Amino acid sequence: MNERAGQVGISQRLRVEWLEATANLVLAGNGSATIRDALNEMLAEKLSIDSRAVRGNRQKTITILMKIWRKVPPGLEALRDDGLAMLPTLAADHRHAVHWGMTLAAYPFWGAVATHAGRLLGLQSTAAAAQVQRRVREGYGERQTVSRAAARVLRSFIDWGALADTDAKGVYALGEQRQIEDAEVVAWLAEALLQGLPSGVAGLTRLLRHPSLFPYRLPHLAASRLAAHSPRLEALRQGLDEEVLMLRMA
């Protein structure tokens, strides 16, 4: 069971370029202190300007960025390492997907908000913030902190280009959908999504069409082909025609 699935954790607005900068700092071999200093300098004119608060928005954002690409939750080290290894050779759309996937894995709350937004988009072509927040609160509790965190995650989706504002306040449309063709990236995304699910297992079709991956179009690849890209994935067959992908037991 994924113990992080019931935690909020991610309470700040994130931009994909901040994740890109964090990953690049890790790839360059920098230690945690150096990365924190570099991110603090980069964000000084963007968050908590002139603030010296120990736990201001800037420092909270840096902690989130570090948890995604540097000090990842236990069990995500191999996924993180493989994601970092891929990033330098990938085109922009594929890098975007890897940052999204690592955020999903490190913060299942990001995935929960994305899931509800993706489902609404699939049903009615728009997603209202109030609807998403209500559904998220059903899973995380009737707390203002949950609503505020969900609102910030939704605004992050807009920053990432995954959602777009409409003429109606608080109502969002689908933004740019990115085509992901690289089988290695698709397998890595599938693993990242499984890491964020409490069960760590899902039917292949559900996985590749999961609403939390709504910003991307993924090809339908055989489960065995995806599992071949990672020693941490296992392909199974249920019944005559249902393929299942799951995380291997440690």
Can you put this structure into words, describing what you see?
The protein is mostly helical. It has three domains: 3-101, no CATH class; 109-174, Arc Repressor Mutant, subunit A (Orthogonal Bundle), CATH 1.10.10; 178-247, Arc Repressor Mutant, subunit A (Orthogonal Bundle). Helices cover 52% and strands 12% of the residues. The chain has eleven helices and eight strands. The chain has helices at residues 16-27, 32-43, 57-69, 77-86, 92-106, 108-124, 129-140, 144-159, 183-196, 204-208, 223-227; strands spanning 126-128, 163-165, 171-174, 178-179, 201-203, 216-217, 233-238, 242-247. A three-stranded antiparallel beta sheet has the order 1-3-2. Strand 2 (163-165) and strand 3 (171-174) form a beta hairpin. Helix 4 packs antiparallel against helix 9 (183-196). The protein is globular and about 55 Å long.
